Amino acid sequence: MNALEYVNDVAKERATSVRKAKDGDNYAAFPEFREGDMITVAVRVVEGEKERLQNFKGIVIAMHSGGINKSFTIRKISNGVGVERVFPFYSPMIQSISLEKKGRVRRAKLYYLRGMSEKKIRQKLS
Amino acid sequence: MKSAILGKKIGMTSVFTENGTQVPVTVIEAGPCTVVNLRTIDRDGYKAVQIGYGEVRENKLNKPDKGYFAKQGVEPVKMLKEFRDPKNTYEVGQELTVGQFEIGDKVNVVATSKGRGFQGVMKRHHFGGVGMGTHGQSDRQRHPGSIGSSSYPSRVFKGMRMAGRMGGKRISIRNIQVFDILPERNIILLKGSIPGPNNSVIQIVKL
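YS: structure for the whole thing
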């Protein structure tokens, strides 16, 4: 194993241990998910001294590989406006991920969902 | 005390901090280095420490090199480098590891930048280029333009920035932060980027 891989592994372990230390008994490993799935991401939001959780629920439209820089994009429609958010997979700011619904898609990148209505998306993913 | 070490640039990656920010880091495999020789005022007229880095096979050494390492009583190394050390705080045979640095230290890094060959003024000196691609002018978009006046001075001033060899030079960067140290693998993580290609040898000095 070369040094770069070693550093990445250490960094991943540390990110997980930070999450374990913060959550204690509430810690749970991420479920497996892929493009097309509906997931909820609980994100830590720091407001001054306090920390609270904010949920972001939507469809995974893309997964970006890249070792420690791995990330995924979630799209949801909020009050009629499409909102997309990119999460770093190993960020300690993600408290948990829960899989809401499996989607059935044949593409790795679902950017074509951007132009569709909610109804159309629902039909497309089931 | 001044600490110095030689290392190899492995590559860049990023690391998360506890508050969730992602920090770009350069991974350096540094040391262990051996102190091979000391320069003293009496003998050499200046004070410095000569350190060696890298493994080398016995059959790669010539006789003078072998003799030198045998005389100093240290294992042969691939390369030697001197660092000024006004206090002569080292001993011959001493091993230098990443342990001499601490997380949060500010260090200076010396490396050879990536060689880019013969480059034009736009890449080499960030010139803007000349004119436009149309209106009868089609062949000097990346040119330097005028390099001086006419009858006075009737010559081109010294140091005029022109096209030429770019990169491959010794570059020092000051005040790079040591982000983390992994002594079990002789790894040191420096915040941000450092000059040069991967697998090149760099010097890390803490003043």
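YS: worth flagging: The mean pLDDT of chain B is 89.
IM: good catch. Also The interface with chain A takes residues 10-11, 13-16, 18-20, 22, 25, 27, 29, 182, 185, 187, 189 of chain B (CB under 8 Å).
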